[in-house]
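Retro notes (design track)

What went well: tokenization of the new backbones is finally stable.
What didn't: we kept losing track of which sequence belonged to which structure.
Fix going forward: every design gets posted as structure first, then sequence, in one message. First example under the new rule, 107 residues:
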């Protein structure tokens, strides 16, 4: 398999599960714009770790492969959220479960 396909594959795998991890820190009351910013930042951070895990920190010398992995994570995370995790209500459920409840909500 070519290095570019491996980078995209790694990014896609990480991105597919990333929305579930992101849902742990997101809150239902946040605006859609703020949630999108958090998701994009999380995808970037996860992409950096995916590059490092796949080829070590020296892998960042290969700009094309690093970019392919970062874009793969971003694309897969957004797509899997829109097509799988949001319609299944799993990501929103995780957001609700991990949100602190105020005294008024607990009643």
């Amino acid at each position: 398999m070519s290095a570019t396909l491996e980078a995209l594959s790694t990014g896609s795998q990480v991105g597919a599960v990333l929305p579930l991890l992101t849902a742990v820190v997101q809150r239902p009351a946040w605006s859609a714009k703020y949630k999108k910013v958090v998701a994009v930042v999380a995808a970037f951070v996860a992409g950096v770790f995916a590059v490092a895990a796949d080829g070590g920190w020296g892998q960042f010398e290969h700009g094309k492969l690093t970019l392919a992995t970062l874009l793969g994570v971003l694309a897969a995370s957004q797509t899997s959220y829109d097509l799988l995790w949001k319609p299944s209500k799993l990501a929103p459920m995780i957001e609700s479960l991990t949100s602190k409840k105020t005294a008024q909500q607990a009643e």
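Added context from the reviewer: Helices lie at 3-25, 32-55, 63-85, 90-98, 103-106.
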